[in-house]
Amino acid sequence: MSAAKSEEPTLLEGIEPASVRALMAAGIECFADKGFNATTTRDISARAGFSPAAVYVHFPSKADLLFATSRLGHESALKVLEEAPGDEEDPAHRIELMVAAFAAWHARNNRLARVVQYEGRALPAKHRAEINTVKERFQRCIESELEAGIAAGQLTAPDVPGTALAILSLCIDVARWYSPSRDRSPEQVGALYSELMLRMVGATPA
Amino acid sequence: MSAAKSEEPTLLEGIEPASVRALMAAGIECFADKGFNATTTRDISARAGFSPAAVYVHFPSKADLLFATSRLGHESALKVLEEAPGDEEDPAHRIELMVAAFAAWHARNNRLARVVQYEGRALPAKHRAEINTVKERFQRCIESELEAGIAAGQLTAPDVPGTALAILSLCIDVARWYSPSRDRSPEQVGALYSELMLRMVGATPA
User: Fold this and answer.
1) Which of A43, A139, B16, B86 has the smallest count of CB within 10 Å of its CB?
2) Measured between beta carbons, which residues in chain A are less than 8 angstroms from residue B33?
3) What ipTM was reported for this prediction?
4) Does domain A9-59 have CATH number 1.10.10.60?
5) What gap in Å lies between CA A175 and CA B120, rounded to an integer?
């Protein structure tokens, strides 16, 4: 993977075989640098240090590599929300942990997240539909936590679907502005954002 | 401008001559559809209904057309913040109006905003520097309103620069998710977002 410097070592770690991992890492770099449409499969193969047709050994097309990347990104970010720790009896604290982890994820994986969010128009319709199904789960995750918090008397929201969308959106946009040279770590972004979110939904930070 | 359907009629209205206006509208559509790098000057000329070399009559390069578009977008959005109505003696109300207008702008001009935000990496360094100067004014605008609100005892913020960045970011990301087919008008998005922002900075909505 020498030629394909990636900011997402942990996220790609589980991908096997190593050649697929290297191609996905190279794809993220190429798509982030010049966009999906302007990247060729030769660019990706070269960046991974492989021969020109290497992408086709593992993926039917460049769009399939983008889809694999997009699915990986969405599933990893969803896991962060769905597996957030915290007591179900304390939804305000639980949503605080969810948002801290979700915002930090978008800072840490900013290049992957940009590809996933801004190059998605290039996915074929059937793949886009599958990704949209995952996106609905993000929305449901935040909505149900808000509803639980409102029911428990811990939170208030003027409009649950709109507020849930705004919370997700706030965290996703971290990928646009964040760079590792910024004077905030992903964890510091997460801490600030979860505090701002708690204020937004009428809770007081712990 | 027949071939170049644009969602930004008002924004482009002031651009003269009409051929430049048509090329900028066509550029926004092409860049939004397939990205800057994958768009040719011929694509843009064709979309505007002109002969293949038409872009070069008005712009030295495709990057200069992107720069003109990016500057137009940034200046228009900045104007919305800087010229927000409202009493200087009532910073909480003023920032409410600023955020409502800024979020609505990003819904209304979502295709232009996406080009401006996500294709900016293609700008030459000197142009990027000029755009960054404008971006700093967005940040200062919100920061100074927050500071005025805090000084007046109307608002609280855990971290003024971080909170200002989050408020701008929340509004900018509207361009990513908004589509005219959504069940919210730009004005409704503005109203919800200004309410969420006021909660975030410890004010109560009017």
Assistant:
1) B16
2) 121
3) 0.92
4) yes
5) 14
